[in-house]
Write a structure and sequence with these properties.
Number of helices: 4
Largest sheet: 2 strands, parallel
Radius of gyration: 16 Å
Structural class: alpha+beta
Order of helices and strands: HEHHHEEE
Low-confidence stretches: 87-111
Strand order of the largest sheet: 1-2
Number of strands: 4
Length: 111
């Protein structure tokens, strides 16, 4: 991915490159759509059965931007209410990222 490629290239300069991969979030721009029958049906496909709140991105953002994530690079944190994991995980998807020399491994598992 672009995030991992840039992270590898810029690591020697001590520059961290990470990403947040958000799911569906409520905003002023999309509020009308989510109120429609199509929007409501789409929302039911999210295991949490709701949209994310913008403030729910604060934690991942602070982790990646602060010293708490000082040794993290090439990581994409998923904040999507389990949407990418599908209904089979019942909203309990966890993103695990392990970094080893010359490889980036990303695994999703139910807990």
């Amino acid at each position: 991915s672009l995030t991992r490629s840039m992270a590898l290239e810029l690591a020697r300069e001590q520059i961290r490159v990470n990403a947040i991969a958000p799911g569906y979030f409520a905003t002023e721009i999309n509020a009308d759509y989510w109120a429609t029958p199509g929007g409501q049906k789409m929302m039911k496909a999210i295991p949490f059965e709701r949209l994310g709140k913008l403030e729910e991105l604060d934690g991942p953002l602070l982790l990646l931007a602060s010293d708490a994530g000082a040794f993290m690079t090439g990581t994409a944190l998923v904040a999507d209410g389990g949407h990418r994991g599908g209904r089979g995980l019942g909203g309990r998807a966890v993103l695990f990222v392990g970094i080893v020399p010359d490889e980036h491994l990303c695994h999703r598992a139910a807990v």
